[in-house]
Specification:
Elements: H1 5-17, H2 22-35, H3 41-51, H4 55-62, H5 73-89
Helix pairs in contact: 1-2, 2-5
Length: 90
């Protein structure tokens, strides 16, 4: 059975907020809330693949401590900019 677009976005949003590592919850959750609904299909596919990655890999990529895989480079950079911007406002 195919997943509806609404169910897909809800699943991805929930997976963004419930990562297993609190730091990644606080990075990906707000990013997903702000951007998921506006993403085109190609970006949704990449974001869904990102959600399959381990937090222990994701956090150093977002923090710029390690290089992200090529297919995630642009999205990881965007997430990092968004997260830093949110922190600067607090």
């Amino acid at each position: 059975m195919s997943e509806t677009q609404e169910a897909r976005l809800k699943r991805m949003a929930m997976r963004s907020w419930r990562r297993g590592m609190k730091e990644m919850d606080l990075i990906l959750g707000p990013y997903a809330d702000a951007h998921l609904a506006k993403m085109d299909e190609d970006r949704l596919v990449i974001f869904d693949r990102l959600l399959e990655e381990n937090d222990q890999d994701l956090l150093p990529w977002v923090l710029g401590q390690n290089v992200a895989p090529a297919y995630l480079t642009e999205l990881i950079a965007e997430i990092g900019i968004y997260a830093r911007g949110r922190l600067a406002l607090q």
